[in-house]
Amino acid sequence: MTRRPGPLNPQKEIRTAMSDTPRPRTVTKAVIPAAGLGTRFLPATKATPKEMLPVVDKPAIQYVVEEARAANLSDVLMITGRNKRALEDHFDRNYELEEALIRKGDDSRLARVRESSELATLHYVRQGDPKGLGHAVLCAEPHVGDQPFAVLLGDDLIDPRDPLLSRMIEVQERFGGSVVALMEVDAAQIHLYGCAAVQATADEDIVRVTDLVEKPDQGEAPSTYAIIGRYVLDPAIFDVLRKTPPGRGGEIQLTDALREMAARVNDGGPVHGVVFDGRRYDTGDRGDYLRAIVRLACEREDLGPDFRDWLRDFTANELAETPAPEGD
């Protein structure tokens, strides 16, 4: 694993014309692509959107909307597809259920049911053809307009104690252009991610992105900085996406468009990265999804104490019953 680059000396520090000039806050909208088929979770996702799979007692998509709201983004556009009606229903009011809870005097559950419909103003647009993440982002153009905007992918849940998105918005306001979230991963895993070549800045957690590669072949990655599912994008990305040909997997890759943006000083550039070392829960595959549930359940005040006690007993019994490897 590579070490994070330290601050450069003053003669080599990466700066842009706007780096020290305060910029007015303009990021007000969040885009959440949610048109995927969720094939890794079949058969559970045959009739249920993968974004609605529960993480403890809330669907995964609600954590993402809560993160946007915590960053003061109350205008949220979801890019959906076929069989995603459950997403709209979840963030809508359910008057019959609410009336039933009112009659029972169950104020606690009533508040939790209403919570999802009061988080933000939700809008929806269908992607139609599943042409990749870049195409999904392009579908947001009529809603976003000419302002920078955030993109949050539902497979990455960021712990609310680690305000990554708010930090990314701060960086975008300072430097302009676009901002991606980066996390160092083991070199053996970098081929699973988009990867960034970076140069250090005077800020420990900010780097200048000079190149990006989508899922590089083993041994060809420019670094061990993986792109995780948070972006703050300049609206110039739309013009680039319209001209971006299909890339890896035959899809229009957002990484490919950002690679062109990274080469620009003006007209949508530059691209910076926020290096994140906080708590991230990956719900993108079955094993990590289960681990995310366990970690979040352990940290819940209402569930954690009893669940941790059970987990200790369970793991102790499992270890006791597991045969030792031969030769030990």
Automatic annotation (TrEMBL):
The keyword Nucleotide-binding does not apply. It catalyses: alpha-D-glucose 1-phosphate + UTP + H(+) = UDP-alpha-D-glucose + diphosphate. It comes from Streptomyces hundungensis. Belongs to the UDPGP type 2 family. InterPro entries: GalU_uridylyltTrfase_bac/arc (IPR005771), NTP_transferase_dom (IPR005835), Nucleotide-diphossugar_trans (IPR029044). One of its GO terms (biological process) is UDP-alpha-D-glucose metabolic process. Pfam families: NTP_transferase. It is an enzyme of class 2 (transferase). This is UTP--glucose-1-phosphate uridylyltransferase. Residues 29-294 form the Nucleotidyl transferase domain. Gene3D superfamilies: Spore Coat Polysaccharide Biosynthesis Protein SpsA, Chain A (3.90.550.10). Keywords: Nucleotidyltransferase, Transferase. Its EC number is 2.7.7.9. One of its GO terms (molecular function) is UTP:glucose-1-phosphate uridylyltransferase activity.
